[in-house]
Amino acid sequence: MEIILIGDGGHSKVIQDIIIAENKHKIVAVLDEKYLGIHKENGIIYGPFTNLNQLNNQDSRVLIAIGNNQIRKKIVREIKLDENQFISVIHPSAIISPSAKIAPGTVVMPNAVINANAVIHSHCIINTGVIVEHDCTIFNYSHLSPRVTLTGNVTVGEGANIGAATTAIPGVTIGEWSVIGAGATVIRDIPGYQKAVGCPAKVMNAEVQVQPLKGGV
């Protein structure tokens, strides 16, 4: 499968390494607004993502290779592709249960573990060494940073950003677009649009600001 990446920063470099390690797909283009024009290097086209329509075809798939959750959602809305035109990439060292479900657009990085009946929705980042235990649900555009551990039946709302080495105990819900500080221990539900830090994690009096987006879902 030919892959078109949108984004050419540090997160994209990691994704490019994963695609090479998978050895199943070929990167044909890397699109980023830092490029003013199109050029080709080592067989890969580089240019602004406004060129997506002319490069995309029935044999290619798209992946948003940008770490910022809000920007990923913004771009997905702007380019208006069908879900089946996106692709997920999974590092070969990741362990994925046969009963787990991973939707298009999601990236699973090295040494991650996704266990039985876990559901990962679209355009999520499951970073290096993350553990997603049984029956967890991760909604669209969320980011689980390196070494996050979600024990059984944890729900992560859309766009949530969970800091490195955070642990969530069984059954808790982390609300949409919330931010959990690195190293936190989540022992109770965290409301949406809130920041929480510490062991145990406590909500700060600082609402997370999410840029309103126009367009579709």
Automatic annotation (TrEMBL):
Residues in PglD N-terminal domain copies: 3-78
Residues carrying the site annotation Increases basicity of active site His: D135
Binding site for acetyl-CoA: H143
Gene3D superfamilies per UniProt: 3.40.50.20, Hexapeptide repeat proteins
Binding site for substrate: G67
Taxonomic superkingdom: Bacteria
Residues of the active site: H134 (proton acceptor)
Pfam families reported for this sequence: PglD_N
Protein name per its UniProtKB record: Probable acetyltransferase EpsM
Organism: Halobacillus halophilus (strain ATCC 35676 / DSM 2266 / JCM 20832 / KCTC 3685 / LMG 17431 / NBRC 102448 / NCIMB 2269) (Sporosarcina halophila)
